[in-house]
Every structure is written in C-alpha cells, then in structure tokens.
Amino acid sequence: MDSLGPAIRALRQASGRTVASVAADAGLSVPYIANLENGRGNPTTGALSRLATALGTDLRVSFGEPDPAPPALPPSLVKLRRTDRFRQAVVLLGKEPEAVIAALAAVGQVVDAGERDWWRLLDAMVLVARHPLG
Predict the structure, then answer these.
(1) I want to staple 9 with a disulfide (CB 3.0 to 4.6 A). Which of 37, 105, 111, 123 is the partner?
(2) Phi-psi region of 39 (alpha: psi -120 to 50; beta: other; left: phi over 0)
(3) Within a domain: residue 117?
(4) Is 59 contained in some domain?
(5) Which domain holds residue 120?
(6) Domain presence at residue 70
C-alpha cells in the first residue's frame, strides 16, 4: 500500500494528465484521487479498477515483492507529451500515446536528451513509420 500513491501519481504524470481529468474519466472525485496519491484513503478494488482504466493501464494485485515505481519522466518529455504536435505524431504513428512516451523515455535512460532531442526523435519515428524500408 505504501507504493500505491507514488505509483498512481507517476502514471498520471507520465500521461501528462491532471488529477481532475483522471477523476472525471474514472468517475471519482478529485479529493479522493489526491488523497490516494498522498498515501491516504482506503480504496476499493472497484475504484482502483476504474482508476487504472482512466490511466490506460491494468489493475494487478500482487502479494509478492512490489514492482518498482516507473522512473519519473524528465520535465522536457512531460512538456512534449502535452503538445498538439505530439498528439498529431501519435496519430501518424498509429500508436497509443503511452507507448510513444515509453519509447522516448527508454532512449532517455541511455542518453541525456533535452527538449530538442525529443522532437528530433519523435520526427524520426514518424519519418520511419511513414516511409519504411523495403
């Protein structure tokens, strides 16, 4: 339970969403989600399931070792995620936004990328998708 709040916050921030937008999609109140993110509350599995769906993920319950929280996205990648240009690129790629962000974030774990680098990588992904070799 100790890792639930940070995990919810990390998923929400990684998707570039506000607490209010997630609450609306999950049919839950803003204070309820804010409390969960801050380690307070006693959520039902139904509420957690709706929250997972709103965040574009699956609800998994485990009694073993906890999964590590996903690493926080760099602020420049979060900023990119919120732009119209990013949403247009996602449409051209035919992928889910989370998959594109995950691919970019994976590159960011290997190289020190900044805002211009994210745009270059995203443009390259679109170029390759629109003009495949062979």
Answers:
(1) 37
(2) left
(3) yes
(4) no
(5) 75-130
(6) no
Alpha carbon 93 to its chain centroid, in Å, reads 17
Q: Is residue 98 part of a domain?
A: yes
Q: What is the DSSP string of 89-113?
A: HHHHHTS-HHHHHHHHHHHHTTS--
**Distance, CA of 82 to CA of 85 (rounded, Å):** 9
At 20 the three-state DSSP class reads helix
Angle, helix 115-130 to helix 97-108, in steps of 10 degrees: 120
Alpha-carbon gap, residue 7 to 70, rounded angstroms: 7
Please enumerate in sequence order all residues whose Cβ is within 8 A of that of 26, keeping only pairs 6 or more positions apart, or say none. Answer: 33, 47, 50, 51, 53, 54
Query: Are 50 and 79 within one domain?
Result: no
pTM above 0.70, yes or no: no
DSSP H helices in 38-82: 45-54, 75-81
- Helix (H/G/I), strand (E/B), else coil: 133: coil
Give the chain's mean pLDDT: 86
Count up the domains in the chain and report the number. 2
